[in-house]
Amino acid sequence: MKHLHMLLVFLLIGVFVYQSYLVLSANKQAARPIKIATHILYALAIVTGAWMLMQLMSAQAPVQWVFAKIILLVAAISSSVKAFDGQATPSQSKVGILIAAIAYAGIVTLAYVKPENLF
Questions:
Q1: Is the pLDDT of residue 117 over 70?
Q2: For the chain, is the Cβ count within 10 Å smaller at the N or the C terminus?
Q3: Residues 6 or more apart from 65 whose CB is under 8 A from it?
Q4: Distance (Å, rounded) from C-alpha 104 to C-alpha 31?
Q5: Half-sphere exposure of residue 102, counting CA atoms within 13 Å on the CB side?
């Protein structure tokens, strides 16, 4: 399950980079299949992450860092929604992309480091 989750996250970040490139370079929106794929990837990444969280909690492992990842994921999703909205101004898109990129970087860092005493 871990490898599937990592693959989904890798694809999700790749789609984010592609959509960011479209918005920043040509001020265009991604095609409808890309937007649908993004929703599917988010859903599958959340389901696989929840599955792994349940396994960690049953093993009594420290999971404080997972809750920080969830908060960052909510920030990344909400800022991506604003950044890739067709009605967003170029400055709103840029700020949304920046916030989402920082959130994704934080998620990847927390996944790699797994600090035990985060809170």
A1: no
A2: C
A3: 110, 113, 114, 115, 116, 118
A4: 22
A5: 8
